[in-house]
Amino acid sequence: NQKDLEINIAITGDYLYTADRDDDVGGQSGYEDRFAYSAFLGIYKPVSEKSPFGFGLAVGQAWFPVVGQEPLPKPDDLNGAFSDSNSNFGIFEAYAQGKVGPVTVTAGRFATKIGGEAPFTWQNVNIQRGLVWAGEPVWFDGVRLEAQYGNFGGYIGVNDRDTDDGKMALEAGVGTSFDKVDIGFNVLIPDKNDEWNTRTYNLTLNINYWERLPLTLYVDYLNTPQDGDDADSLGVALLGQYQFNEKISLGARVEYVNNDGDGDNYGIGKGNNAWTFTLTPKYQINRYLSVRGEVSYVTLGNKYYQKDADNHNSLSDSQLRLGAEIDFVF
């Protein structure tokens, strides 16, 4: 039945500029600025009691800029998809689902349930994703079992942690809803010898007390096994979007992340910490078309960012970015 299908289409054009940076450092561009675009098509058939079989397919090209990380990525850099980097095209999700009573089984390639931000720019209140998001998994290939009973739900599954080394990871989570608050606790525990072996423990709260200002608070603890002491990191993010009227809104995010002295799970340097602040005003032109601007600022505990291409000692402990995006979302 065509009415059971959900079809999502998105096309975006983006520009981000990082102040006080040479564009090319060590032969790699994107330290100063980057133009990029995204094109996305998602086709989903959800499962239900009356329709127990479903599927999901998401394809396209996208990029994943992260506040506080340098350089800005190219559209085909680490896009988390089955992709051909020559065409920048990827398959982000491809799964089948079946429902038996309260249990839903998902098999294929699907997204993590960890965290409070979605992968694509147009899905979030900010253009750039946060540093806390950058420490989390995004997609992987595996099998997941979910069950829902009233306001309580849970899931468990195994997946490849998006690696090709044949080692598997365990995922699990529980959640509930009460009085306009959704709360979930999620874990991902890869094999210790996996290529991506960071263990992720996540607590996410979606707070909907204020109709004009829904909020999301999420906390991650990351543990990366390695020779010697493990690399441990903590990240906390609070984000929301205030709706002034039907046309105008303001997205905002504040974060704190901290790496211990044994590793770097956030791309800001071993033993470093950071505060990030992001503001994203949005104007909704019509039902499908919108424009956004963005300003973000990062302050580090220790200098880490290289400013001048030819001077490795030209380090800074802050980052200022300006951005713009035009979105067509159907």
Structure characterization notes:
The protein has one helix spanning 131-134, and strands at 6-18, 33-45, 53-61, 82-84, 89-100, 103-111, 139-149, 152-159, 169-178, 181-189, 199-207, 215-224, 231-243, 248-259, 273-284, 289-300, 305-306, 315-316, 318-329. The protein is an all-beta fold. The longest helix has 4 residues, at 131-134. It starts with 5 loop residues before the first strand and ends with a strand.
Mean pLDDT: 92
- Give me the strand/helix succession: EEEEEEHEEEEEEEEEEEEE
Q: Which structural category do the helix and sheet elements fall into?
A: mainly beta
Number of DSSP strands? 19
Task: Give the biggest beta sheet.
Answer: 16 strands, antiparallel, barrel
Number of helices: 1
The low-pLDDT segments are none
Strand % is: over 45%
- Shape type: globular
Strand order of the largest sheet: 1-2-3-5-6-7-8-9-10-11-12-13-14-15-16-19
Rg (C-alpha, Å): 20 Å
Percent helix, as a range, is under 10%
> Span from first to last CA?
20 Å
Protein topology:
Blueprint: E1 6-18, E2 33-45, E3 53-61, E4 82-84, E5 89-100, E6 103-111, H1 131-134, E7 139-149, E8 152-159, E9 169-178, E10 181-189, E11 199-207, E12 215-224, E13 231-243, E14 248-259, E15 273-284, E16 289-300, E17 305-306, E18 315-316, E19 318-329
Antiparallel strand pairs: 1-2, 1-19, 2-3, 3-5, 4-5, 5-6, 6-7, 7-8, 8-9, 9-10, 10-11, 11-12, 12-13, 13-14, 14-15, 15-16, 16-19, 17-18
Task: Provide a short characterization of the protein structure.
This protein has 330 residues and is mainly β. It is built from one helix and 19 strands.
